[in-house]
Design goal:
4-stranded antiparallel sheet; globular; binds flavin mononucleotide
């Protein structure tokens, strides 16, 4: 957890099926509201699909196109009606942590699901592209690959615990 960083530049090297299985094992081990385990994951490897997904983002994230693998983290809202965002987020983060443990690089790409019950243009596009059923909401995309060592990862200064930990109240 302490060594995980977002990685956005990847080597031209496949993320094998057995690694994807491991990532999904980690994702589905996440806690969920009432243990509803509402997740579905869409793995996208095709260059055409990745390009079309990248084009849906206003800022056209290059790494959505370049990453060897995208995992679209989705939640079945018939299983998780009011906690689907949290349920999706925690599974996505398990994927990112597992990726780091396996030596892979990952980054969370947001902006797919509209707030609350309404959807967004990005979500509608993604829904069409991936043929998502009505009850399935995409929460985020985790882009994954073998991290390119040439990527410059900015140093990250963590906030001091004394500033954010409040004992027995604020
Ligand atoms: C909810 C959430 C949404 C994010 N959305 C994006 C995104 O759309 N594009 C992107 O490049 N990074 C995205 N990130 C990654 C953050 O930019 C990154 O976590 C942050 O800069 C801290 O860097 P670190 O992950 O290396 O610690 C997102 C992260 C989170 C938690």
């Amino acid at each position: 957890m302490l060594t995980r960083r977002s990685r956005r530049k990847y080597l031209d090297k496949e993320v094998t099926e057995d690694l994807v299985e491991k990532l999904i094992d980690a994702a589905k081990a996440a806690p969920s509201s009432k243990d509803c385990q509402p997740w579905h994951f869409v793995a996208v490897r095709s260059g055409k699909q990745k390009g079309e997904i990248a084009a849906l983002k206003e800022d056209e994230n290059r790494f959505l196109r370049d990453a060897p693998l995208l995992i679209v983290v989705c939640v079945d809202t018939t299983k998780s009606q009011t906690r689907w965002v949290e349920d999706g987020a925690i599974a996505a983060h398990n994927i990112a942590l597992a990726a780091n443990a396996l030596g892979l690089g990952a980054v969370w790409i947001t902006g797919w699901c509209g707030w609350g019950r309404s959807s967004s243009p990005g979500e509608e596009g993604l829904r069409k592209l991936l043929a998502l059923p009505e009850n399935i909401r995409p929460v985020c995309i985790v882009a994954l690959g073998w991290p390119d060592p040439s990527e410059k990862v900015e140093e990250k200064i963590l906030r001091p615990t004394s500033e954010i930990l409040h004992n027995e109240g604020w």
